[in-house]
Amino acid sequence: MRSWFWTLILLVAAVALALVLREHGGNVLIVAHPWRIELSLSLAVVLLLAGFVALHWLLRCAGWLGAGPERFRAWRGRRAQTRDVELLESGWINVLEGRYAQAEKDLSNLLSRTRSADRKVLAGLSAARALHLLGEYKRRDQVLRLAQEGAGQDNRLRQAVDTVTAEMYLDQGRAAEALALLEPLQDASSRYFHSTRLLLRAHRQLGHDEQVYALTRVLLRRSAIDPTQAHTFIRGAVARRFAQCDDEAAIKTLWADLTADERLDPAIALAAAQAQARFGHAVESARILEAALGRALDDGLLRAYAQCEPDQAAHRLARAEIWLKSNPDHPSLLAALGQLCLGAQLWGQGEHYLERSLALRSDTHVHALLATLDDALGRPDLALEHWRKASQEAGVAVPAVGRLLPAADTRGDPRFDEARQDPLAPQAPESRIPEAASGVYVDDGEPSGTPQPVAGPPEPGTASAPAAKASHGDDYFDTAPIPGVDMSQTSDGGSRSLHKR
Fold first, then answer.
1. What is the pLDDT of residues 39-64, one digit of tens each?
2. CATH 1.25.40.10: which residues of the chain?
3. Which CATH architecture is the domain 305-401 placed in?
């Protein structure tokens, strides 16, 4: 558009000049001794314009020739910049595609050839990233030092190098070194969200729960972190801080800083209630648990709510029965009611709740409570059965043994009466029959009833009657060989003859 405008102006000027010259015919006399030149006005104007144009182009050509060296240097700079950009683009594309070896090759070439400080730092950081992903940490650290030297005193480039270095250290598990690099970047305004996230990651690796809580709050207010992830970090940090608190004022301060929704979180409520109970505030602990359980009946909260002193059992039992009206088939709630009844010495009602819970879901905790109750009520068979089921629920394999367990050889065990004996007194002959330390009858499921013990034959060279008296302890133990056990390695050397039942 601009060219057309100037062309139009020139045409208008030419037409105007032609009209003026047409109306004003005249001559131009140029006297330069010994020459005398006479021209028409029109020709003189044309020659003047042509001379001006020729002089202008001559001057332009002289200027262009004079700027040749500078123009050549600029051309070389543009070519080098184009080459650097191509190498940088190729290196990053290879990094993104996972071709780290080729990426490191291109970026190292760029690092050694470029003269730009910015591109030198970018190439160094990119090559360090490729070497980090390749697991070559020594070469990575060398490249990072080159990038740090290339940054010089430029704060922006130095911060970029420190941030990338800290991120690699965190990937490697060197949280303390990363923390030393990141802390100077954390200012009061928290403008550098990426460095703040890295700082949060470093504190999480080091287990600094107080800093994790504070940094997560900052990022959550700035919408620089996913809310679900932030609540997870806050939940874990607050729960651990409650568990580590050794001061009541610290517990109150931390609890007051939480939002209403966070106070109802099961993990936070459980940790806060345990902290209050640790300092003897049972009422406050119950209040915290009741508020959280009012929103959702969590299994962990219910189990903690059921563990209380006897003077608190009646109040908690009344509150739990209110929840039972709206949740009649909640197994954990029924188990908590059963445990509270046991604490209040309501044996029958407690057994009723526990049996209802067990009918809905088999649970180790419920089996253990019923086993304890049956044992206290004098029902050892039922208690043993519940203990077995509790072991099975806990993943403990209980083998079914179909015979009586053999007696243990206690001849080598120390005795208190032997310590009091006179060492000079004559010693009684040692009995060759091992004394039983313990014995257990195991039901093998036979319909005939209680299994009968099998007594071994008398020892060679002894009378039958004394042998019967000496082997009186064997009447209570099954001496049949155990499948898969070499009896020759036992304490009696396998010298006894074992009879079938």
1. 877 778 778 888 998 999 999 999 88
2. 305-401
3. Alpha Horseshoe (1.25)
